Amino acid sequence: MGLHERRQREKESIRANILQAAFTLAKTEGWGALSMRKIADAIEYSAPVVYDYFENKEAILFEISLDGFHKLHIELLKAQQKHDTPEEQLVAIVDAYWNFAFKNKEYYQLMFGLGMQCCGKGQMKKEFSSFQELIYECTYEIIKKNGSNPDNACHMSHALFSAVHGMISIMMMRTADIPSTMNKTTLDETVSAFIKSL
């Protein structure tokens, strides 16, 4: 391996270590407690080294959120591909979204700015709208199959996204005072009623 390749590999390794350290700190202390100094201490480098790779903390958060959206996108596609009918696909996609949110709480909070400022303003990429696009496709196909007005697909799918994201946000951010009935059963009933309404 040449000198250039070795240096490039070292730079990639340091960059990955910075992102991993930031995510690990967030899991133990929360996103609000994250700082460039803490990240530098965690990887045993000086803060200026971290700034060589990322302009500021927000740039680090944006990279991590992109990783989260990418992981979510993969899970949603896997769920969709297991089923043939748009109804089954819609249920599976919503289930995968729900499961991802609660198995990857730190990612989800960062991706959607729950309890913190959302990062990545003005830098949206395709993965950001993956869930909305997939439920739109299923909604459109169900509406078309039922002979209803396909012009309603956008409005209806947005309503479903809002309901699902809203339920997750409430459960994630207000665990102390939400009703015990607000759970996966509520989600399943919501999706079932949504499909019947199309």
Automatic annotation (TrEMBL):
Pfam families: TetR_C_33, TetR_N. It comes from Chryseobacterium flavum. Residues 12-72 form the HTH tetR-type domain. This is TetR/AcrR family transcriptional regulator. InterPro entries: Homeodomain-like_sf, HTH-type_Tx_Regulator, HTH_TetR, MT1864/Rv1816-like_C, Tet_transcr_reg_TetR-rel_C_sf. GO terms for molecular function: DNA binding. The keyword Iron does not apply. Residues 35-54 bind DNA. Gene3D superfamilies: Tetracycline Repressor, domain 2. Keywords: DNA-binding, Transcription, Transcription regulation.
